[in-house]
Specification:
Layout: H1 6-13, E1 53-56, E2 62-65, E3 70-74, E4 79-88, E5 94-102, E6 113-121, E7 128-135, E8 143-147, H2 156-167, E9 171-175, H3 192-197, H4 201-220, E10 228-233, H5 235-247, E11 252-258, E12 275-280, H6 288-297, E13 302-306, H7 320-340
Parallel strand pairs: 8-9, 8-10, 10-11, 11-12, 12-13
Antiparallel strand pairs: 1-2, 2-4, 3-4, 4-5, 5-6, 6-7, 7-9
Length: about 350
């Protein structure tokens, strides 16, 4: 199936680069915090920059620290963070430890430290990358799976949103749904349909299931969390519906679908957990009528429609007005996740 009206989405972000935001080393309120502990991830053959220094852990095992610190700002999160990258001597793991400090006078976020780790999930040729972000100080023990839009898990907008969700107390896993081949704004629109056909539905289902099972092993088996939550944006929103329809409420306790694309409305009757749908009424990729039809067939679900908003407004706001609605949508999502997951655990 193709994206109907997909090119309007490309036009919206064609001038955007998926790279990180410009650095600003002169921010006066940034404070240097103590270096976080290193978290060892699953096996990985990626990430092999030249090391700056080595820290011995004893025996033949070393952690190499690299000159990859960078400072990024997010106007939406009101946060400034420094990211520290590490890898082992044999480049089989990589850890990102992210320290976040809330701006003076900003009370929106509560935590000051989020730890992160890059992972390789699956085995052999079926393996794929992912990253896990965990709130350190105010962790509520709940696991969330985030399915990205077409620009992939490494896109700055997706990472910013994932960081912010983690900072709200969650353990957030974001898989690379496209195996290193996300859509980019530099590509010709004529290539889009071919790119879509390369995203095998069978592979996507397998990768999402692998990600969910990994989180079960990490959190549910340890009796930290009873059910997982799942959040999807754009392409990931459509895959969220398919995932919940096939899950029957066994792994996931709820879902939040942001302007999902390529949604099959017939799957609604197979979903047994509440879903929050968020979209704008000026989004040809996610018709409001489809969402209301889904709402009727999913018990305890809810549709939030933002007037005048188009595709991607909640995690890619383009104006002060969109910023305001994006903030409201994030607050609505937080409340929904708390009521459907945290309050029940």
């Amino acid at each position: 199936m193709a994206f109907t009206g997909a090119f309007s989405f490309f036009a919206r972000f064609s001038s955007k680069s998926p790279s990180t935001q410009p650095t600003n080393p002169e921010r006066p309120h940034i404070e240097k915090m103590a270096a976080p502990a290193v978290i060892v991830s699953a096996s990985s053959a990626a990430f092999s920059p030249s090391p700056k220094s080595f820290v011995s852990l004893g025996g033949n095992f070393k952690i190499s620290s690299f000159p990859t610190q960078r400072r990024r700002s997010s106007r939406k999160c009101n946060l400034y963070r420094e990211i520290y990258s590490y890898t082992t001597k044999k480049t089989i793991t990589k850890t990102l430890c992210c320290q976040l400090k809330v701006e003076e006078g900003i009370g929106d976020e509560a935590c000051e430290l989020v730890s992160g780790v890059d992972l390789i999930l699956g085995e052999g040729t079926d393996s794929f990358r992912a990253y896990l972000l965990k709130a350190v100080k105010n962790n509520n023990g709940t696991g969330l799976l985030i399915l990205s839009d077409i620009f992939g898990f490494a896109d700055s907008a997706t990472r910013d949103l994932a960081y912010r969700v983690a900072c709200s107390g969650y353990n957030v896993l974001v898989p690379d749904l496209f195996h290193g081949d996300p859509w980019t704004s530099e590509r010709s629109k004529d290539e889009f349909e071919l790119w879509v056909t390369r995203q095998s539905p069978e592979r996507l289902v397998k990768d999402i299931t692998t990600s969910a099972r990994w989180m079960v092993d990490e959190f549910l088996v340890a009796e930290i969390s009873k059910k997982l939550g799942i959040i999807g944006f754009c392409f990931g929103g459509g895959r969220l519906i398919e995932t919940l329809a096939g899950d029957s409420g066994l792994l996931f306790g709820t879902g939040v679908c942001f302007y999902g694309t390529r949604i099959d409305p017939s799957l609604a009757r197979k979903i047994n957990v509440p879903v929050l749908f968020v979209s704008g009424d000026d989004d040809p990729l996610c018709p409001v009528s489809v969402l209301h039809d889904m709402e009727k067939n999913i018990k305890n679900s809810k549709v939030l429609i933002y007037h005048g908003r188009g595709h991607g407004f909640a995690h890619r706001p383009e104006s002060p007005e969109e910023d305001e609605d994006a903030e409201d949508a994030f607050a609505q999502m937080k409340a929904w996740l708390h009521d459907c997951l945290v309050a029940l655990n």
